[in-house]
C-alpha cells in the first residue's frame, strides 16, 4: 500500500521516524518538487514543521479495506517512533497478475500433403490429423503462456533447432477463442462471492423446514437475500462469455443448492439441519485457519495442536474419564462398580465432555482469522482481545451446560425404554439388556433390595456386580438388586416380549 505519510515535528522526530522505518524495512522515498508543492498547498502545511514521504506499507490479507490496515500500521509506527505521523493518502498498488492462456506447441508438417490428395481422402486425413493434433499425438515438449500471436511467434522463432515454420499451437485451458483476459485474484474473489452465498442459501432453506412459521419465514427471506449477491456476481464474472451462459449457470447452481437443501420428494432426501450446520461450521473453521495461516504460521500451530494436546491430556486424567459415567450412575442410583467400563470408553466419555470446549476454541480462532484477514480487528487490540475472551467464555459455559445435561438425558432415555419395553441405548460402555429373571429359591428366601422381583416381567439388566444381579425396576424407577446365587437369568429374545413360560420356578 503506497502511503503518503506526513511527519510533524523537528529534526529529532524525523530522525527517529526514519530510523524506525528502516528497522521495519519499509521502502521510503522523498516527494518530487512538484508533488511536494501540491501536497503542501492541499494541506496548508508549513515547510519548517511538516515533511511528507512516500512509504510502502506492507499489508497482508484482503485488498478490501486494506487502507484501514495501513492506517493502523502508520499509527503503530507513530507510537513506536514517538513522533507525530499521519497517513494522508493511501493508494493500493495493483499486484494481481493477469492469467494468460496456456498453449501447447504441436507439429503442422502434415498439412503440406493434404492439397494433393483426392477429395474424400483429403477430408479423411484432415479429420484424422485434427484428432491427432487435439489429442496430443503431434505435440512437441513445449508449452507457452501468452496471447495467441505471441505464442505462435515464440514457438516458431525460439525453437531449439532454430526458426521453424512447421509448428503451431493449440489452447489447453479453453481460452483460445478470444475470451477476455482476467486477473487471478479477481476470478477467485468472484467465485467465492458466487459459491458462498449459495451455500448460505441452502443452509437457511434447510433450517426453514424444521422451525416455527415465523422463524421459517425469516429463514426463507434470508435465503432469498443470499441468492441476490450470488446471481449479481455470476453476471459480472471475469470469465463470463455470454449473459445466456451466465443465466444457465446461475439456474443450475441454484437448483443444485435447493436439491441439496430440500431434496426431491420420493427420490432424494434433503440434508438435515444438524448436518448442514456441522458442515458449515467445519467449512468456516477450515476457512478461518487458512486465512489465519496466511498471516501468522505459528498461531495456526498454537490454535490447532495445543488445544488438541490439552484435550487429550485432560481426557487422560482419571477424574475426567469417569465424570460422565459417574453422573449417569447418580441419575440411576447406581454405584461406580456397577457402571465400570474399560479405559477406551472412559476416554470416549472424556472427549465427549471436552470437545464442545475445544470446538469453541477452534471457532473463536477461525473467527479471529476471518476478521483479521478482512481488517475488521485492529492489531493488538485490547477491545478485540477482551471480546474474544468473553465470547470464548460464554461459548465454553454454554457447551459445558449442554454436556453436563448428557447423563440426565441418557438416564431419561433408559427409563423411557424400560417403560415402553424397547431397546435401551448404551451410554459410553454402560449397557442394559432385556433379561428374564427366574428365582432358584423359594420366594420367601429371596433377598431383594430396592423392590420385589416379578418372574413374569422382563427387566433391563446391568449385569452381575459384587455377587448381585443389578436390574432396573420400571415400576419404582429404581434399581433392583438380587443375589446372583438365588436367580437364573434367561434371554428374552427381544424387547417387548414376555417372560411367561420361560424356565421353571424353583
Outline the structure in words.
The structure is a single chain. The protein has 506 residues and is α+β, with helices and mostly antiparallel strands. 51% of the residues lie in helices and 16% in strands. It contains 15 helices and 16 strands. Strands 15-14-13-12-16 form a 5-stranded antiparallel beta sheet, with no helix packed on it. A 4-stranded antiparallel beta sheet has the order 2-3-1-4, with helices on one face. A hairpin with a 2-residue loop joins strand 13 (459-465) and strand 14 (468-473). Helix 9 packs across helix 10, helix 10 runs antiparallel to helix 13 and helix 13 (343-373) runs antiparallel to helix 14 (382-404). The radius of gyration is 37 Å and the shape is extended. The termini are far apart. 23% of the residues are buried. The mean pLDDT is 81.
What is the β-strand count? 16
Question: Share of helix among residues?
Answer: 40-55%
Widest sheet: strand ordering: 15-14-13-12-16
State mean pLDDT (0 to 100 scale). 81
Strand content: 15-25%
Structural class: alpha+beta
Radius of gyration over alpha carbons?
37 Å
Poorly predicted ranges: none
| Major sheet summary line | 5 strands, antiparallel
Given the C-alpha coordinates, what overall shape results? extended
Measured distance between first and last alpha carbons: 93 Å
Q: How many helical elements?
A: 15
Amino acid at each position: 500500500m503506497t502511503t503518503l505519510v506526513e511527519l510533524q515535528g523537528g529534526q529529532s522526530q524525523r530522525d527517529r521516524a526514519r530510523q524506525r522505518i528502516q528497522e521495519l524495512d519499509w521502502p521510503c522515498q522523498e516527494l518530487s518538487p512538484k508533488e511536494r508543492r501540491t501536497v503542501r498547498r492541499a494541506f496548508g502545511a508549513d515547510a519548517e514543521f511538516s515533511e511528507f514521504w512516500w512509504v510502502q506499507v506492507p499489508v497482508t490479507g484482503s485488498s478490501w479495506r486494506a487502507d484501514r490496515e495501513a492506517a493502523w500500521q502508520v499509527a503503530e509506527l507513530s507510537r513506536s517512533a514517538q513522533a507525530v505521523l499521519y497517513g494522508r493518502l493511501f493508494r493500493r498498488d495493483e499486484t494481481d497478475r493477469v492469467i494468460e492462456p496456456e498453449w501447447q506447441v504441436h507439429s503442422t508438417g502434415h498439412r503440406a500433403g493434404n492439397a494433393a490428395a483426392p477429395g474424400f481422402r483429403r477430408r479423411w486425413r484432415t479429420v484424422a490429423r485434427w484428432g491427432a493434433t487435439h489429442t496430443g499425438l503431434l505435440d512437441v515438449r513445449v508449452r507457452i503462456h501468452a496471447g495467441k500471436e505471441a505464442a505462435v511467434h515464440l514457438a516458431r522463432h525460439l525453437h531449439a533447432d532454430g526458426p521453424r515454420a512447421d509448428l503451431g499451437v493449440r489452447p489447453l485451458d479453453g481460452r483460445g477463442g478470444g475470451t477476455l483476459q482476467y486477473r487471478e485474484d479477481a476470478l477467485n474473489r468472484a467465485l467465492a462471492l458466487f459459491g458462498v452465498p449459495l451455500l448460505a442459501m441452502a443452509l437457511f432453506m434447510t433450517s426453514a423446514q424444521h422451525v416455527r412459521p415465523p422463524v421459517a419465514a425469516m429463514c426463507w427471506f434470508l435465503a432469498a437475500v443470499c441468492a441476490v449477491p450470488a446471481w449479481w456476481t455470476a453476471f459480472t464474472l471475469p470469465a463470463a462469455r455470454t449473459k445466456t451462459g451466465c443465466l444457465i449457470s446461475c439456474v443450475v447452481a441454484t437448483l443444485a443448492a435447493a436439491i441439496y437443501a430440500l431434496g426431491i420428494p420420493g427420490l432424494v432426501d434433503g440434508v438435515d439441519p444438524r448436518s448442514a450446520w456441522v458442515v458449515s461450521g467445519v467449512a468456516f473453521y477450515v476457512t478461518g485457519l487458512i486465512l489465519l495461516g496466511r498471516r501468522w504460521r505459528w498461531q495456526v500451530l498454537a490454535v490447532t495442536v495445543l488445544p488438541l494436546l490439552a484435550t487429550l491430556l485432560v481426557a487422560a486424567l482419571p477424574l475426567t474419564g469417569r465424570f460422565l459415567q459417574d453422573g449417569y450412575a447418580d441419575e440411576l442410583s447406581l454405584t461406580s462398580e456397577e457402571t465400570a467400563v474399560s479405559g477406551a470408553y472412559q476416554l470416549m466419555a472424556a472427549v465427549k465432555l471436552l470437545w464442545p470446549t475445544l470446538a469453541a476454541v477452534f471457532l473463536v480462532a477461525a473467527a479471529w482469522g476471518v476478521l483479521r484477514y478482512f481488517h475488521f480487528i485492529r492489531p493488538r487490540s485490547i477491545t478485540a482481545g477482551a471480546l474474544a475472551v468473553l465470547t470464548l467464555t460464554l461459548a465454553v459455559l454454554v457447551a459445558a451446560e449442554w454436556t453436563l445435561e448428557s447423563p440426565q438425558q441418557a438416564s431419561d432415555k433408559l427409563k423411557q425404554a424400560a417403560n415402553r419395553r424397547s431397546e435401551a441405548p448404551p451410554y459410553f460402555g454402560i449397557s442394559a439388556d432385556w433379561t428374564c429373571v427366574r428365582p432358584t429359591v423359594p420366594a420367601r428366601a429371596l433377598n431383594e433390595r430396592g423392590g420385589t422381583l416379578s418372574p413374569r416381567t422382563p427387566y433391563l439388566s446391568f449385569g452381575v456386580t459384587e455377587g448381585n444381579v443389578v436390574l432396573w425396576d420400571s415400576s419404582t424407577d429404581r434399581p433392583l438388586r438380587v443375589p446372583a446365587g438365588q436367580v437364573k437369568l434367561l434371554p428374552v429374545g427381544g424387547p417387548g416380549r414376555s417372560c411367561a413360560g420361560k424356565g421353571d420356578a424353583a
